[in-house]
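Morning run. Coffee first, then this:
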Amino acid sequence: MGIFSRLFGTSSDIERQLEDMYVPMFQETRGMSLSQAKSTFRDLLEKAKKDIREEGISDLPENLGDVLIQKESTDERARSFLDKRRKEGIRYEDIRWWWNMHNLERGMIFQVDALDRLAFFIKLTEEDGLSSDEAAKRVRKFHPIYGDPNDTSIMTGEDRPLMPELRDRVNTYVMKKNQADREKFKKEIEESSTFNALIRQEIKKGNI
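And here it is:
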């Protein structure tokens, strides 16, 4: 469940709560100073706001996941929206988890995800000496890529973007696999064309 899914505060309230969560996380996991962490948070928050404005989704209601599920039997748009996601392995609990979040919470998740992929890409090119193409392939192999599964501009077939509603289940799966046998899991990743392809296989097997 999103941390703000049951809160109905002002935008500034939500921004403060996001800052309270992300700034310490950036300090702990990325070794940033307090000022660096705050600056990074503000930059990502502004990018999230910009994306929300450009997508025209700034007025989405709170707890949209519950609304969609409640309207499924009577509203064709809600039914179509959910049917599309069920075909990608999405469950009702995934809909509630993702769409009950506040817009800014979802937006920050996307921004931090992009930041992580960029950091890995830079390491591969600047420290490991890989070409841009090789580094991009490694990023797709070791990081799940979320977005519209119908977007085949970069990846096709099983490598296509995963629905963002899967994030929580994927994170839980990755944590369990790493705890059970990190080296075995790394080998499974290496043998897959992309991380997305591995995830799709595991969903079909009922492991996610």
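Residues 1-8 have pLDDT under 50 and may be disordered. Good start to the day.
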